[in-house]
Amino acid sequence: MTCPLQSTRACNLALPQKDTNPIIRPDIDWIPSYKVFKERVQRLAAQNLNRPTTLPAGWPAKITSERVWSGSDFKSEDDYVVKLSQEDILEIESALEYFKTLDLGPDDVSKNNFPLPDLGPKLEEVSDIIHNGRGFVVLRGLNSDKYSSTDNILLYLGVTSYIAETRGMQDFDGRMILHIQAVRKESDVAQHGSMPNSPYVNRAQPFHTDLCDVLSLYALGVAKYGGESFLASSATIYNEIARLRPDVIHILAQDDWPFDEFYKNQYHTRPLLYNFSSSSSSSSVDGRRKEHHGPGFQFSRRPLTGAHFSPHHPLVPAMSEVQAEALDMVYFLAKEHALEIQLQKGDMQIFNNFAMLHARSSFVDEGEHNKRHMLRLWLRNEQKMWRSDSEGLDKVGREVYEWDKEEWRREVGTKWDIEQSPPELRVDFKRASCA
Question: Which Pfam families match (predicted)?
Fold first, then answer.
């Protein structure tokens, strides 16, 4: 069995022999304190550190593309919501009924057997927006209550196959789709002695990325209160840091960030920031215009900070004070420039995981009809995918999207949970590859 999905250059590092000197860690939380952050900035500035004043070689001074935006740039939902017409919905339903006559399963859904002759080209345009434009879209118009649990999954797979057809495996049990809902309230966590993975409680989640190329959420249900989605442009965050603190770009791009995997006493190190080159569809062979995407993030705070109720293994190395400053700087810039999105029941929110960070507010469910319930897919478009020179990041991609090339994963096979989230034991003890 290989290392966890976030494995990279140092994934096989065994924990060092116990040292008599305790590890001193920075004062940094999963959801950070602005006061602590500003005090750290001032304290480090007073130390007159020998900080680089220029960017690392090969990194752009500024990203100039449609994916550079701030939340205030959007005047209304119409700027990013694609509304499905009644004709579009009827076409989706017709394709669903056709697929169901083929006696196939979720693994088999593709553009070839889910025909959308009129909507398909529109979804291809959505795919271009996600990969080469602002980076995100909300599809609106479906009524998720109208369909069975199985039909909701099948039509979801059919629609998204026109945007990014390859689907990733999201955990070690072979799950290809996750039900993001509150299995347990945060207020009940303390008595259990451990904190469930972030998708399965109702608390807020800080800005982070997942382990995929494209992330998709289908809102089967929304909470009575809260649960807002927040997106922030990684290009805007990069531009601000590159302009004001080029030394922090050096820190973020170094491969010495210690990620605690909580997995067989292992940890690994890798960068938080990567420089993406071109899409695979940009080759000169087919004559298409080359897209140079530039810097993007790939990290979550939990294995870096030791999440609440999930402290670091005592022998995992501590991040440095300058790393703590850089990590919180990314968070507070994301918060400053974020777009808040109130998803409606039936919405599909689809975005480029490398082009932005995402977060979520806490929420309160009420009864059976006001419960937040998202279906999550990890997607890839083989022609438009972003590419990096990082072997570590490529390894993550192979483990998520080329799982069938590993014998142990072929033996596990794929799993499709149709109705609900995994049982609580898995929520507590099996890592869900997210924030």
Answer: TauD
Give tens-digit pLDDT for 99-108: 999 999 999 9
- Contact between 70 and 240 under an 8 Å Cβ cutoff? The reply is no
CATH number of 52-276+288-426: 3.60.130.10
**Residues forming a β-bridge with 229:** 341, 360
Please give the Cα distance from 200 to 185 (Å, whole number). 9
pLDDT in tens, 371-409: 999 999 999 999 999 998 888 888 889 989 998 777 766
Longest C-alpha distance within the chain, in Å?
70
Q: How far apart are CA 293 and CA 272, in angstroms?
A: 16
CB-based contacts of 141: which residues, under 8 Å, 6+ apart?
A: 83, 84, 85, 88, 89, 346
Instruction: Please name the residue ranges forming H helices in 12-111.
Output: 34-46, 86-100
- If you search the block for the tokens 């989605």, which residue do you land on? 229
CB 174 within 8 A of CB 430: no
Q: What is the per-residue DSSP string for 40-91?
A: HHHHHHHTT----SSPPTT--S---STT---GGG--SGGGTEEEPPHHHHHH
Residue with the larger pLDDT of the pair 392 and 73:
73
CB 352 within 8 A of CB 136: yes
**Can you give the C-alpha Rg of the chain in angstroms?**
21
For the entire predicted model, the pTM comes to: 0.90
Question: Is 50 exceeded by the pLDDT of residue 5?
Answer: no
Q: What percentage of the chain has pLDDT greater than the value 90?
A: 67
User: What CA–CA distances, in Å, run from 417 to 45, 55, 173, 181, 333?
Assistant: 51, 46, 11, 13, 36
